[in-house]
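Hey Z.,

So I finally got round to the MU-OXO-diiron thing we talked about over coffee. Here's the setup:
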Amino acid sequence: MKKATKLKENVYWVGARDLNCRNFHGELYPIEEGTTYNAYLILDEQTTLIDTVEEEFTSDCLERIQSVLKDQPLDNIILQHAEPDHSGGLMKIKAAYPNATVYASQGCVRNVTTQFHPDFPMNPLKTNDTLCTGKYNFTFVEMQMIHWPDNMLTYCPELKTVFSNDAFGQHIVNYQLTDENLDKNYCIEQAKEYFANIVLSYTTQVKAKLNLILSMNLEIEDIMPAHGIIWRKYIPDILEAYQGFADSKCKRKAVIVYESVWKHTQDMAEALAEGFGDAGMEVKVYKLSNTRSSIVFRELMDAEVVCVGSGTYNNEISYSVGAFLTHLKAAKVKGKKGLGFGAFGWFPKVPSNIDQALVDSGLTSCHEAIAQAFSPSQDQLENYYQIAQEIAKDC
Ligand code: FEO
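And the result:
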């Protein structure tokens, strides 16, 4: 029997823990410790559920709801996002509580209707609409493209709580549910990884919505996202961190990613890394086939320089580098310099093709692409070291 966890007076966590999840959203975001789908139950004259869970965990959610409500009805369901990790349980929960009224943004109504073909009505909401459940008032703010067109955030002034859905999420599974017993840097790093892999393409929208929320001067005791821990102790820290993420702030940091069969491209990567490192820059080097992509994108988020290296495979870029470049283009990063490099045997164009892909993804080429025929000599490695030192002078 799954039970609800009380978070504060009249507010309960009724979500689910997906402990075996290692690939969040398919292959897009590899994770290490599983995740949670957070749903919240609020008791008042009318009872309200905020968000549901992924479909396969609906029985967990329902058991937790029933552990609090017993024979009481569920009056309202506020669905803040149509993606299946939050809407997947809606049909079964609505079936269990057929008299509940469902509220969602207009985009969410459209997407839920298209995904699940429900034959029950949903009440569309827009920014500044409110719902009064007795002593509590809920105000809604549309959060378009953070990270779907239908995302929404809900604020309750009497509870001093923001229900933020995907915003401020992370994949921390903590049985105490809040940040109070956790290290601050760990929490912020997890939020950064989540931002880098889920929200990074939409920094402009994040900035606008953050400014809107801050201008509302809300009194906030809790931020309750749809994944991971509830922010309570580190609220100023996560708000400040999000402003930095949204500003695409970069530091003197180089991320070098590569793929190499016979170590020639790896030797180039290491020579570049030493050049950046000796110039005082922070450096991260990743062989893509050895590294989960979510770490690479977390580290890349605040890097000023991104160097991408590949050996040459039948005149093409290696598969892992090709996948990385596709992901990078989708991420729409801003304010970064790029460099393509790599070794070849008889077809020298792969590094310049990488360079072009970087430019097409919005990076500025900071040096002519480096193409190395077979293994680099000591003089050539020294040259790559010097190229990194030259690039570092402009960082
Ligand atoms: Fe957590 Fe966009 O779903």
